[in-house]
Structure formats: C-alpha cells, structure tokens
Design a protein that fits this description.
Pfam families: Abhydrolase_1. The protein is an alpha/beta fold. It contains 12 helices and 8 strands. The protein has one domain: Rossmann fold (3-Layer(aba) Sandwich). The longest helix has 24 residues, at 2-25. 41% of the residues are buried.
C-alpha cells in the first residue's frame, strides 16, 4: 500500500513540476509579457461587428530627422519585436519608423474574421493616416513582403519605395502544394511545440543556428502553453489560407514604385512545405532562382543577394543587410 502511495505521490510531483515549468514559459496570445524594444500603442479598428485593435510602435528619428518614414511589415511567424536592429539603424539615419503588428499577430487582436491582404493593407493605410503620414518607404519581410506588395499596388501614391526582404509568394503555391482546408490546418497548428518550432526554424530559416535565435523559439512556442492557444492556432490556420488563396505573383509587373529585393541565396521557404515530398520540395522555394525571376518581372527592380544566408537576412547577416538597406534608401 505504501509503495503504491509513494509511486502516486512521485507521479503527482512530476506532473506538478511539469505544470510549473509550463507556467514559467507561458506567454499570453497577445504577448503582454513580451517586452518590445520601444513603446507600443494601439490603433482601434471595427470590422465584421467586432472591436479590435492593432498594436504598433512609432519611433522618432534619433539623429538629424530627414522627414522620411519607413514602415516595417513582419513575417507570419513573428511580430514587431524582431525588427530591433533595423529600427535602430533607420532612426540613427534620421528616419521615423512605424512597426505594426498585423491583426492576428503579435500584440494585436486575434479575431475570427475573413483575413485578406487587401484588408490588411487598408488597415495599415488607415493607421498611417491617423499618424499624419502620407508617404513612406515600406519594407516587408516574408508574409510582410506579400502584404507590402499588395499595399504598393493599392497605394502607389503613398509608397515612396517598396523593399522586399525574402518575400513569400514568389510562386503560386496553389499550383504545386496540395490543398488543405482551414480546419485541417488548424489541427496541424495545434500540434506545435517548442521542439517542432525550433526544428522548423533551424531547417527553414537559417543556414547556421545561433543561440540568439532561441528567443524567437521562446516567443513562438510560449503561446502554446496559454489556455487561449486554440484561438491563436485557428488564426494561424486562417492566415495560412489567406497566403495560399491570395497570390501576388501574377501582379509584379503592375508595381509602379521603385522596388528593391533583398534575397538570402540559401532561402528555401515554401508555404505548406510539409505537404510536399522531398523531390517536390527541391523543385520549389529556390530563392537563388526566384529572386532573379521576380526582379525581372518588376519594372526597374534592383536585386541584392546575400551569400550563406537563409530566410531572414536582417537577423542572419545584420551588418550586410543594414549596409544594403541604408544604401537602398
């Protein structure tokens, strides 16, 4: 009897320790307990009968303001927190920098709505109007590159220059990635763990893994411990569907603003990569080819490539990226 009691007690202690460990790592789905590099404000939005809000940072130039503004659009698995070094480089050069967390991401609301790049672009335009910013340079990374492209297509008169850092959507994923509906993708998102996130980031985002990247894993995986995680998982599935169903690849020729592409030559990102065989994966997502193809489609576009670099040049080769970025402005 005592032996059974001891085993039960040990099991309870192990479970309690695991629960405490999870609690220590837990992040809210709007990242209230994640410190952003600058003060965060909120822009109110009403859509589909819901009152939601868009988080953003608005950072003034730190040296000799030049009157210009740069807006930074983050990728799907990130928020404004990973732009710190880029913000500093730009503000030191005299630029005002605005960094929104798109609706459904970061510190912004996670509503169940129809997600659309057109609607996201309109919300960002409204945010900038509220800040008195008529014209700006727009830099978009990954999914943010798709959004920045849509923004430039919709608001060319407000876009001084379009900067695309390893944008996704350089291919039409519908033509080779098997269709998976939002509900099925939701079930996949629910299975995310710190281990699976780290493995994905190591294999998909970086050529060489560095300890600094663990913070990205901590934030991405930390929301998985929240009781509200199913909401974030469903929104992630909804935005996956948005990316899959709303390509921009056929409209690059219509871009009317000066454009620069920043491409990591080792980037092999494919949205829905896990649905493909190794042979299919090797036939797509080759940014060393896609970058050149895309630059040739955009009138007057400039292409800047980074050797030994994957999907996030501003983190993997920050010095080279900063020089290229400032030179492009």
């Amino acid at each position: 009897m005592r032996k059974k009691y001891t085993i039960a007690l040990l099991s309870l202690l192990v479970y309690a320790g695991h629960a405490l460990g999870q609690k220590a790592d837990t992040l809210s789905i709007t990242l209230e307990n994640v410190k952003y590099p600058y003060a965060v404000k909120f822009f109110p939005i009403k859509t589909e009968g819901q009152d939601i809000r868009m988080a953003y940072m608005d950072i003034a130039a730190t040296k000799s303001p030049n009157g210009g503004t740069v807006v930074l659009f983050h990728g799907k698995n990130f928020g404004g927190y990973y732009w710190t070094n880029v913000i500093k480089a730009l503000t030191d050069r005299g630029y005002r920098v605005v960094v929104p967390d798109q609706i459904g991401f970061g510190k912004s609301s996670k509503p169940f709505i129809h997600y659309s790049f057109h609607q996201m672009a309109a919300w960002n335009r409204a945010l900038l109007d509220s800040l008195g910013i008529r014209q700006s340079v727009v830099l978009g990374h990954s999914m943010g590159g798709m959004l920045a492209t849509r923004y430039a297509l919709l608001y060319p008169e407000n876009t001084v220059k379009l900067l695309l850092e390893d944008p996704i959507g350089l291919e039409d994923y519908r033509t080779f990635v098997p269709y998976t509906n939002t509900e099925k993708q939701y079930q996949t998102e629910l299975k995310a763990t710190a281990e699976s996130v780290r493995k994905y980031y190591q294999s998909s985002y970086f050529v060489q893994w560095k300890p600094d990247y663990e913070e990205l894993v901590r934030i991405a995986a930390g929301v998985g411990y929240s009781a509200d995680f199913p909401r974030t998982a469903r929104v992630a599935a909804m935005t996956f569907t948005m990316i899959y169903e709303q390509p921009v690849v056929y409209e690059f020729a219509n871009i009317k603003v000066p454009t620069v592409l920043f491409i990591g030559l080792e980037d092999k990102t494919i949205v829905g990569k896990g649905l493909l065989t190794p042979e299919q994966q090797s036939a797509h997502g080759q940014y060393k080819v896609l970058g050149k193809q895309t630059a040739s489609k955009i009138p007057g576009a400039k292409l800047i490539e980074f050797a030994n670099c994957g999907h996030i040049p501003h983190l993997e080769v920050p010095e080279e990226f900063t020089i290229a970025l400032l030179g492009s402005l």
